[in-house]
C-alpha cells in the first residue's frame, strides 16, 4: 500500500530513482531545501511499504492581492511506478490541502511562456488559476509575449 506523506529532509537522500528519469527536471539541493522550508505543506512524497520514494510533488503559493495563486513546481513519479495514478493522487492531495487553505490548485491556464527556463534550452510554462479574491481574473490574463528567466518576479 502506498503512503502519501509530507516530504522530509531524509527523502532528499532517497528520491534519486525518481529524478533519474529523463522526463524529470532536477534541481540542486538548495532548491529542494527552500521548498521544504518555505512551503512544507505543498511538498509531498508517495512512499512504498519498504520506504522507497515512488514519486513526489512540489508546490507553493505566491503573489499578492488579486494575483495570489497556487503553483505546481514539479510532480514526478519513478518510471516503475507509473500507470498507478500516483501523479493524480499527488495532485488531488495538493488540491485538498490548498482548498483547506482557501486555495484552488487545478484548472490552470497558461499565463506565460518562460524561454529557456529548463536545461537543454527547453521553455517552461507559467500556469495559473485565479483565486476567489480575484473576481475579475486579472491574475491570469495571459501575457502577449514570452519572457526570459531574468524577467521572472517572485513575491
TrEMBL record:
Protein name, per record? N-terminal acetyltransferase B complex catalytic subunit NAA20
Q: Which organism is it from?
A: Zea mays
All residue ranges annotated as the N-acetyltransferase domain in the record: 2-142
Q: Name one GO molecular function term.
A: acyltransferase activity, transferring groups other than amino-acyl groups
**Database matches in PANTHER family:** N-ALPHA-ACETYLTRANSFERASE 20
Cite the entry's keywords alphabetically. Answer: Acyltransferase, Transferase
Read off the CDD domains from this record: NAT_SF
Quote the Gene3D superfamilies the UniProt record gives.
3.40.630.30
InterPro entries, per this entry?
Acyl_CoA_acyltransferase, GNAT_dom, NatB_acetyltransferase_subunit
Amino acid at each position: 500500500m502506498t503512503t502519501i506523506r509530507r516530504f522530509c529532509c531524509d527523502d532528499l537522500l532517497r528520491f534519486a530513482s525518481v529524478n533519474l528519469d529523463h522526463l524529470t527536471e532536477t534541481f540542486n539541493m538548495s532548491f529542494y531545501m527552500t521548498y521544504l522550508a518555505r512551503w512544507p505543506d505543498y511538498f509531498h512524497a508517495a512512499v512504498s511499504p519498504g520506504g522507497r520514494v515512488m514519486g513526489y510533488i512540489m508546490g507553493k503559493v505566491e503573489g499578492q492581492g488579486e494575483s495570489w495563486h497556487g503553483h505546481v513546481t514539479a510532480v514526478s513519479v519513478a518510471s516503475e511506478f507509473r500507470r498507478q495514478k500516483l501523479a493524480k493522487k499527488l495532485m488531488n492531495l495538493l488540491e485538498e490541502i490548498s482548498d483547506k487553505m482557501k486555495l484552488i490548485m487545478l484548472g490552470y491556464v497558461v499565463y506565460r511562456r518562460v524561454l529557456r527556463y529548463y536545461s537543454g534550452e527547453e521553455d517552461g510554462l507559467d500556469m495559473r488559476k485565479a483565486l476567489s479574491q480575484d473576481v475579475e481574473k486579472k491574475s491570469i490574463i495571459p501575457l502577449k509575449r514570452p519572457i526570459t528567466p531574468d524577467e521572472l518576479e517572485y513575491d
